[in-house]
Amino acid sequence: MNRVLPAGYEISTDPERLDPALIHQWLSKDAYWALGRSREKQDLAIAGSLNFGVYDRASGSQFGYARVITDRATFAWLCDVYIAPAVRGEGLGTALTAAVRDHLAPYGLRRILLATADAHSVYAEVGFAPLEKPENWMALGEQ
Q: Is the pTM of this model over 0.85?
């Protein structure tokens, strides 16, 4: 189940390529889960995470982002997956999610989790499924 990245784009985990101001703008103004997030909070999140960027090969401009919180041994949380509105519908979200999955595969993680209100089909296409026993899970903080 490998999703091919559309022609003209590339994915990188190089933190030097990230555009933190653009990522903050996207998430704090357009992502329902991060509306109003401060730039300081976003920069801390980037610094403490494994980050993935989607870039135009020709210009180097960033068009997507995903962040993973992981111990690289047993668990990962995929979050802040975002594709710029101008390029949505080209398959970049699914390709980005597949790239994250494939990047994490060598760690042999027991579980990779995520939460979504509206992109279930994107994640299902690369192997994510609803929790088998959601009643076993609990959360502390905002829900």
A: yes
The mean pLDDT of 18-23, rounded to a whole number, is 98
Of residues 87, 90, 81, 84, the one with CA closest to residue 128: 81
Could you tell me the CA-to-CA distances from 26 to 30, 77, 83, 136 in Å, in that order?
Answer: 5, 20, 9, 33
Spell out the long-range contacts of 101-105 with Cβ–Cβ below 8 A and sequence spacing 24 or more. Answer: 101/126, 101/127, 102/2, 103/13, 103/50, 103/52, 104/68, 104/70, 104/76
N-to-C CA span, the chain? 31
Query: How does pLDDT run across 90-116, given as a tens digit for each residue?
Result: 999 999 999 999 999 999 999 999 999
